[in-house]
Design brief:
Strand 3 (about 190-195), helix 9 and strand 4 form a beta-alpha-beta unit. Helix 2 (about 45-55) packs across helix 3 (about 65-75). The radius of gyration is 26 Å and the shape is elongated. The chain has helices at about 10-40, 45-55, 65-75, 80-85, 85-90, 95-115, 125-140, 175-185, 205-220; strands at about 145-150, 155-165, 190-195, 225-230, 235. The protein is of the alpha+beta class and about 250 residues long. The protein folds into two domains: about 10-115, no CATH class; about 120-235, Cytidine Deaminase, domain 2 (3-Layer(aba) Sandwich). A five-stranded mixed β-sheet has the order 2-1-3-4-5, sandwiched between helices. The longest helix has 30 residues, at about 10-40.
């Protein structure tokens, strides 16, 4: 059957017409997703749908659903995507620089906003409160990192410092720790380090190092309140576990 002259389209015009139809379809889908979000937030959104909607704003004229699914498949979770570096994101087929920057910017903006909640003078009088703060600092860290939190005599937050990082373990100089404590005028400290493996269990080396630090701090009248081993949203208190000999 022949097409009439009114229906006949040249290849270039046909491609543009098909693109226009697809764009209209995507626009309707995107509009529905925006309305869903404005009505109920992210309630009912699957992880790939959250990414799909974010990618709307970096990829304006393409279906982003399959790309979002590919990101979840590659990094296993929404959090995994947000922790990935731009160059890692761009290895996923379909991810360009603008999209990678958008996702990285969104995750880091949230991280920075979380850090802003930690104000000098915040009362940190329990290991649980200290663990919550350390989790903010260690949220994006994929290597092992040791940190010290300094407090005044009333157990109020002064500062938090990174002591060192490592791939499977971390080492640092005692002199650096003592200098940080002295510079902040600390009366007490919490120590913490993360286990990126996801298991919040102190090693014997952790116990031995903690005991040396306890003795060094005690010699200058600074109290080591606890050493916390952080693994994602879980932690172990070495003080509660009676692993610090006082």
């Amino acid at each position: 059957m022949k097409n009439s002259g009114a229906e006949r389209k040249e290849p270039a015009a046909l491609e543009a017409w098909s693109s226009e139809k697809a764009s209209g379809s995507h626009a309707g889908h995107r509009k529905r997703k925006r309305e869903q979000f404005l009505k109920a937030g992210l309630n009912g959104f699957a992880p790939d749908e959250v990414l799909e909607m974010l990618l709307f704003y970096a990829i304006p004229r393409r279906d982003t659903h399959e790309l979002a699914r590919g990101l979840i498949e590659q990094f296993h979770s929404l959090d995994g995507v947000f922790q990935a570096r731009p160059e890692e994101l761009m290895r996923v087929p379909g991810m360009g620089e603008s999209a990678a920057i958008l996702l990285t910017l969104a995750s880091r903006a949230v991280w920075n906003s979380r850090l802003e909640r930690i104000k000098r003078g915040t009362l940190v009088d329990t290991s649980s409160k200290a663990a919550d703060l350390f989790m903010h600092f260690l949220w994006r860290e994929r290597h092992e990192m040791a940190m010290v939190m300094t407090l005044d005599q009333e157990r109020r937050f002064l500062a938090c410092h990174a002591l060192g990082t490592g791939v499977n373990n971390v080492s640092f100089r005692f002199d650096d720790l003592m200098e940080m404590v002295s510079r902040d005028g600390a009366a007490a400290v919490y120590l913490a380090h993360n286990h990126p493996s996801g298991v919040a269990v102190p090693s014997q080396q952790d116990v031995n190092t903690t005991q040396r630090i306890y003795a060094a701090l005690r010699a200058v009248n600074v109290e080591l309140l606890d050493h916390l081993v952080i693994a994602e949203e879980d932690y172990t208190s070495m003080d509660v576990s009676n692993l610090i000999l006082r």
